Structure formats: C-alpha cells, structure tokens
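so my prof wants the structure for this chain in the tokens format not the other one, which i didnt know existed until like an hour ago. anyway here's the sequence
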Amino acid sequence: ALRTLREALNLSLNFWFILPVTFPGSAPTLHPALEALFNFIVTWGLLCFGFIRDGRRQRVSFFPFLVGTAFLTNVFLVPYLALRDPQLALRPGSGGAEDADDDDDDATRLEAVCESRAFGAVLGVIGALSGAWFCFGRGVEFGGVGERAAALWSMCTQGGAQGDRLAASFAVDACVFWLLQGWLVPDDLRRRGAWQSPPSETSRRLLTIARFVPFFGIAYYLLVRPPYAHNLKDTK
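here's what i got, hopefully its the right format
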C-alpha cells in the first residue's frame, strides 16, 4: 500500500510531463509507459468536462462527479450515469432545435471554457503527447516500443511484487472509459438541435466516431460538434 501511495504521488508530480521535461533532474523517475498511461487516463477523464451542461437539470449536480472523475477516473463517472435522468437533460419536445439547451449567454465561465473547440483540441494533443512519451520518453534506457509495451503488460497483469496496482487500475479505467465515452453524445446533440428523428448522416457519423474510437473519438467530437441551436439561428 505504501509503495502504491508513493507511486501515485510521483505520478502526480510528473503530471502532463511538465516536471520531467522542464526539470528532469528534479522529477521522480518512473517507467515512461506507466507515466504515459497515467496521463492518458487522467486526460480522458478531463474530456468528460465537455459534457458539463448535461447536469444543468439533473437532480444531482454533474460537477462533483466530474471533479472526482478527474482524480479517481470512472469511480465517479459510473455512478453519475446511473443516477442521471435522460429525460431531465432536455426540454420536452421533439428533439429538434426547439429543444436546444439554454443559450451561451448564461453559460458559466467553466461551461464556456469546456464548450470551446480549443478544449477538445488541447486535450487531444495531450493524449497524442502521452503516446509519444510512451514510445520515446526518457530515452533508450527503457528500450524500444515493444519492450515498453511488454513492460506495461507485465505491470498490468502480473500479481505480487512484479505487478503494479495502479497500472492494472488504469487499464481497467481505459476499458470502462471506452465503453462509456459515447453515452452522453446523443443527448448533447439533442441539446444542440442536431439529433432529429431519424438522425442525419452527419450526426450518426459523429456518434459512431465518439463511441468507437477510444479517447480521440471524444476529443474529435468536442472539436467539431455543432454549436447551440440559438447560434445557428442567429447566423441565418
């Protein structure tokens, strides 16, 4: 338990690779594959903030669950998905533009940031950097890509002293995130007036990408999703 706690602290100190890149002599030395997985999973949790407006009409606020997801991943996301009422995420109606959520004029500062296309773009870049760190981080000391992958697999699957509890939990988190990442997309599209019945080809394609492309599917969705319907009407 002490080893796991110490490792979690060291991973936190190396968050987003800032300390290893800027002050490598001061940064804790961990296996780059584990560092990459940690940062990838934490960033995946942060992508959920892109759906923060889902909680506006829920009986339980989404924000505490999002904060918990950022620190403890899907330990908090799964309960929110179980507790939320899909009917409360939308105004009554047909699911078209008339059902769009409150306009951006009353958005909080946090909602405005999470609505920005830059939000998905920046987190997508960090996800890509995590992949680069997995392949090349900390130089040849940790071997090539194959050796790093084998080491991570060993950490995730072996028990006892050879295994790594955090690595195993991150691997489980990745599977759960992939399974659930597209859960809120249809309601998000409905709030934007972009999910009619039947849905358009564009909406179906966005949902397919968001559901089946791990991590980068959601980052792409947040980057290209349509604005709120009132903005579309203002531009006509």
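also thought this was worth mentioning. The chain has a mean pLDDT of 86.
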